[in-house]
Amino acid sequence: MDLVGACRAFVNVSERGSFTLGASAARIPQPVASRRIAALEKHLGGRLFDRSTRRATLTPFGREMLPSAQRLVQLADAMEHDAERAKLTPLRFAVPDICSARDLAHLDIQARELGIYLDFHPAPPAGRAELLRSQQVRMALAEVPQGEGRWSVPLGLASAAEPSAGAVFVETLRVVRTERGTRRRRIWIQPEDDVPQIRDRIMRVRDAVGLQPAQVAVTSSLTRAAAECLGSADFVLASTHQAEELGLYWRPIGEVCLSRSYDVVGGDGSEAADRIRNDLWHGVAECLGAPARREAAA
């Protein structure tokens, strides 16, 4: 038996003194209200209404039971209200600070259409980890070992001058001494790629091909890295999406295949984390600059 539904019919009929008006207030047909109240009477073991009159008059037993029924209906209403409010409470979500406001706004719209409310907290990798550790956010879009993430973003080298080859080999950046002096080209690593699975691999390539230590360095921001490249022959480690935004020419790296690999961490196995991974896959991919199709990221 639907105890809450039966009590709701009971309370509405008693307040209006009519089965017809009470059923209308409960937004159910009158026969349904009558059946629910009859089932409640059977469940409680006593008559709630005196049916010998035209009005729905409470019996002494009905008057005794009415306060309890009212409390149950009020608690049910409060629970439904709390549930609606909880669904509207934004979920604090740490995301890469390379995501543009425009892309995040589109992701927010897509999420709301699915009943998911997100409160974005942009931060670099270490910042996202700290936000999650300190419980300032519930979940984070974090970089994971290459090939293990839900989203994969290929990385290459971007420069102001268009390279003549289809790939840039790090070994071609060795220091060259000319009549005009020493030519030293560098690779700049932006904060988003200052993680072991990316930074350490490009550093190993640097050492293997004989570049000087200072020729591969981490910079404080993508803006600074872009400025270094636009004013010289330097390169920035970046995605194709970032290269297009900055007006730079992008090429893959000849010696190593690098990519950012992302997944949703935190959330304690919540449904929201799974829905972001699945229902919002394309929206997140657009924010990260990942390939548009899942199979392309495999």
TrEMBL record:
Gene3D superfamilies: Winged helix-like DNA-binding domain superfamily/Winged helix DNA-binding domain. GO terms for molecular function: DNA-binding transcription factor activity; transcription cis-regulatory region binding. Residues 1-59 form the HTH lysR-type domain. Keywords: DNA-binding, Transcription, Transcription regulation. SUPFAM superfamilies: Winged helix' DNA-binding domain. The keyword Signal does not apply. It comes from the Bacteria. Pfam families: HTH_1. The keyword Lyase does not apply. InterPro entries: LysR_HTH_N, WH-like_DNA-bd_sf, WH_DNA-bd_sf. Belongs to the LysR transcriptional regulatory family. This is DNA-binding transcriptional LysR family regulator. It comes from Nocardiopsis mwathae.
